[in-house]
Specification:
This protein is α+β, with helices and mostly antiparallel strands. It has two domains: 126 residues, Aminotransferase class 4, branched-chain amino acid transferase, N-terminal domain (D-amino Acid Aminotransferase, Chain A, domain 1); 158 residues, D-amino Acid Aminotransferase, Chain A, domain 2, CATH 3.20.10.10. 29% of the residues lie in helices and 28% in strands. Strands 7, 8, 10, 11, 12, 13, 15, 16 and 17 form a nine-stranded mixed beta sheet that branches. The longest helix has 18 residues. The two termini are 27 Å apart. 41% of the residues are buried. Bound molecules: pyridoxal-5'-phosphate. Pyridoxal-5'-phosphate binds next to strand 11, helix 7 and strand 15.
């Protein structure tokens, strides 16, 4: 049996209450047309969620952010019920094969046909085994890279779609290759006016004077579902949290940094631009255990 499972959604933006079919498909056969905007322009949106034993972590938060990304791209609203059903169907066989293990599910909406075709937006959910992130969860080397935008990008240049989870991740992947060339594992993007932003596929959490801080989504960063759940848990156990601009100068005073995301969860930063950072292994493990137990 393949360790990928794909469910296609025939009318991914059908209004609520209208009938939508979800069909199983072979993930290794062509299912998206070569005329699709998503394929040709990266014009579409996606989400990736983690799952264990059929529980999809933060599914509602992912569906809300998916709808928000659609609105930012002027796409029709995705049918959340259909996506939730496709996600559950796609993960079921993999979760059954892998009790207690992490599975990832990606769901996608494209703008539809760029040329020729008459079809509407394409939508699907694909489930796949989670890579082994044990190394990253024990500590990663991170370099800062200039994103080439100011921190007020959302106000001045909203068409750059900061904070939307679009299919256009080529620049994010290029930044990761640059990190590898510099001998690092990952990237922290910074703005031209000296604000720490986010990773190419992760949010930043910094502990500064005992307070957990993360950059504000108004600065063009994606509102992270993992970061939000870490903050909710940390507040319950007595941490103060702040969502606010984080200056790169403040990072020198941080007593710990993490990059957080749905698949890898919390990866503590063990060096930033070659400068060693303290890793709080116990707190990282506590957060990751909490995240894995989420429904
Ligand atoms: N920022 C960016 C640019 C991302 O692509 C991601 C996730 O892929 C995140 C932050 C973290 O978001 P989440 O924790 O919801 O996975």
């Amino acid at each position: 049996m393949s360790d990928l499972t794909l469910c296609l959604i025939d009318r991914p933006t059908a209004p609520p209450g209208e009938s939508v079919s979800i069909v199983d498909a072979d993930p290794l056969q062509a299912t998206v047309l070569a005329t699709d905007f998503g394929v040709n322009r990266g014009d579409g949106i996606f989400e990736v969620a983690g799952c264990v034993d059929g529980r999809v972590h933060a599914l509602d938060a992912h569906l809300r952010r998916f709808a928000r990304s659609a609105s930012m791209l002027d796409l029709p609203k995705p049918n959340s019920d259909a996506y939730a059903e496709a996600v559950r169907r796609a993960i079921a066989p993999l979760c059954a094969q892998r009790p207690g293990q992490e599975v990832l599910v990606k769901f996608v909406l494209t703008r539809g046909q760029e040329m020729g075709g008459t079809g509407g937006p394409a939508g699907w959910a694909i489930a796949y085994p989670c890579p082994d992130f044990a190394h990253d969860r024990s500590g990663i080397d991170v370099v800062t890279l200039d994103r080439g935008v100011r921190s007020d990008i959302m106000r001045t240049t909203p068409w750059l779609l900061g904070g939307a989870k679009t299919l256009s991740y080529a620049a994010n992947k290029a930044a990761l290759r640059e990190a590898k060339r510099r001998g690092a594992d990952d990237v922290l993007f910074v703005s031209t006016d000296g604000h720490a932003l986010e990773g190419p596929s992760s949010s930043l959490i910094a502990r500064i004077n005992g307070v957990l801080v993360t950059p504000h989504p108004d600065e063009g960063v994606l509102a992270g579902t993992t970061q939000a759940d870490v903050f909710a848990y940390a507040e319950e156990v007595g941490f103060r949290t702040e969502t606010r601009p984080v200056l790169t100068d403040e990072l020198a005073a941080a007593d710990a940094l993490w990059l957080t995301s749905s698949g890898r969860l919390c990866a503590p930063v063990k060096s930033l631009d070659g400068r060693p950072m303290a890793v709080d292994a116990a707190l990282t493990a506590e957060w990751n255990d909490h995240l894995l137990a989420r429904s």
